[in-house]
C-alpha cells in the first residue's frame, strides 16, 4: 500500500484544463473537479488539494498522488515524489520532498528506492524512510534518522514482513526508542481458508527518550490505557470503545491512596462529539472551574463549547482558518 496520499478514479476521455470547469459534486463541504485526464482537485471547506497521476496516464483504476495543498489564508504546501523500482519497473511513488511558499522545505530520504539492494532485508525495507532533514536554514539544519526491525506476521496463511520503527535520533529530540508488544487481532484471519481468527501484530507499548520512559500503552480488544509509571503514581488515561462512542477515564497524578478518577462518556451527536462527566472530582479545569461537558465539532476538529460543574456554558467561535476569535459565556458576556 502506498504511504502517500492517493485517490483512485475511473478512466474518462481527456479534457482541456479550464478554471471554469464545473465541479462534479454539489456537496457544500466537498467539491471534486476533474481538471484533465491526469489531474483532479478536491476542495474541502476552502482548502484545495491537487491530485495528479504521476505516471502521466489514466487507466481503469489509477493512483493519484496529492501534489499540492492550498489553504484559504494563502499558504501553499507542495509535495514531490520519487518512483520506486522493482525488477526494473516502476512499482509506485513515494513522497521525498515537502515545501511551502514561505521558504520551508523537508527532504525525505528513503531506503533502496532503485531496488539495487536485492538482499532479503533490502527488499523488506524498500521505500522506508531512512532520514529527514530541513533545508530552510543551513546554519541550524534539523535532521532525524530512523532505525527499523522486521517482524514477520502471518496473515491469511502467508508470512509477511512488518517493519517496526525502533529508534529515532534527531537534533531536536535526541534519541527516542520505541518498544512493542504482541497483540492478537481477532478480526483478521490467520489461515488461507479464512476459518481461523487471530493474527499477532506488533503494537507500540513504550516510548523512551534518552533512556527514560515517557509513556506506556496497554491495549485490549476495546481499550487503550496510557500511563508513565504506575509504580510511581496512579496517573493514567483510559479510552474504552463502544458502539455509540465510549468512555474516557482520567486518573489524577497522585499517590494511589489519594488518587481520584474522572470518567467522560463519549457520544457522537450529528456533527459533534460530546464528552459528559458525572464524576465528583475533576481532572480537567477551565478558568479554575472543573468541567462537566465538552463539545467538539467533527468538521473543524475544534472545541466549540464547554460547561463547568456549576452549569455555566462557554461557547467558542472560530474564523475561516479555524483560529479562535471569541469566547463567550452563557450570559452573553464576551470574555475574549
UniProtKB/TrEMBL annotation:
This is YD repeat-containing protein. It comes from the Bacteria. Residues 1-21 are annotated as: Disordered. It comes from Acinetobacter puyangensis.
Amino acid at each position: 500500500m502506498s504511504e502517500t496520499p492517493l485517490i483512485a478514479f475511473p478512466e474518462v476521455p481527456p479534457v482541456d484544463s479550464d478554471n471554469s470547469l464545473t465541479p462534479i459534486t454539489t456537496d457544500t463541504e466537498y467539491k471534486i473537479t476533474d481538471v484533465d485526464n491526469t489531474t483532479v482537485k478536491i476542495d474541502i471547506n476552502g482548502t484545495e488539494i491537487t491530485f495528479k497521476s504521476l505516471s502521466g496516464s489514466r487507466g481503469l483504476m489509477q493512483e493519484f498522488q496529492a501534489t499540492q495543498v492550498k489553504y484559504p489564508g494563502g499558504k501553499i504546501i507542495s509535495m514531490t515524489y520519487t518512483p520506486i523500482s522493482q525488477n526494473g519497473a516502476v512499482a509506485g511513488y513515494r513522497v521525498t520532498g515537502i515545501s511551502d511558499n514561505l521558504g520551508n522545505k523537508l527532504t525525505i530520504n528513503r531506503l533502496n528506492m532503485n531496488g539495487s539492494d536485492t538482499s532479503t532485508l533490502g527488499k523488506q525495507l524498500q521505500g522506508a524512510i531512512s532520514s529527514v532533514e530541513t533545508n530552510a536554514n543551513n546554519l541550524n539544519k534539523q535532521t532525524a534518522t530512523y532505525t527499523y526491525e522486521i517482524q514477520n506476521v502471518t496473515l491469511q496463511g502467508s508470512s509477511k514482513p512488518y517493519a517496526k520503527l525502533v529508534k529515532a535520533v534527531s537534533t531536536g529530540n535526541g534519541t527516542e526508542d520505541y518498544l512493542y508488544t504482541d497483540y492478537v487481532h481477532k478480526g483478521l484471519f490467520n489461515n488461507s481458508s479464512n476459518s481461523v481468527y487471530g493474527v499477532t501484530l506488533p503494537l507500540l507499548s513504550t516510548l523512551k527518550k534518552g533512556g527514560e520512559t515517557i509513556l506506556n500503552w496497554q491495549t485490549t480488544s476495546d481499550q487503550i490505557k496510557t500511563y508513565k509509571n504506575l509504580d510511581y503514581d496512579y496517573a493514567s488515561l483510559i479510552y474504552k470503545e463502544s458502539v455509540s462512542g465510549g468512555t474516557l477515564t482520567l486518573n489524577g497524578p497522585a499517590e494511589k491512596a489519594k488518587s481520584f478518577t474522572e470518567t467522560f462518556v463519549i457520544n457522537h451527536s450529528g456533527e459533534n462529539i460530546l464528552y459528559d462527566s458525572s464524576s465528583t472530582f475533576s481532572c480537567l479545569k477551565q478558568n479554575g472551574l472543573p468541567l462537566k461537558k465538552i463539545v467538539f465539532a467533527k468538521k473543524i476538529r475544534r472545541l466549540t463549547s464547554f460547561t463547568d460543574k456549576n452549569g455555566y456554558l462557554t461557547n467558542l467561535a472560530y474564523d475561516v482558518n479555524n483560529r479562535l476569535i471569541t469566547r463567550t459565556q452563557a450570559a452573553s458576556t464576551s470574555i475574549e
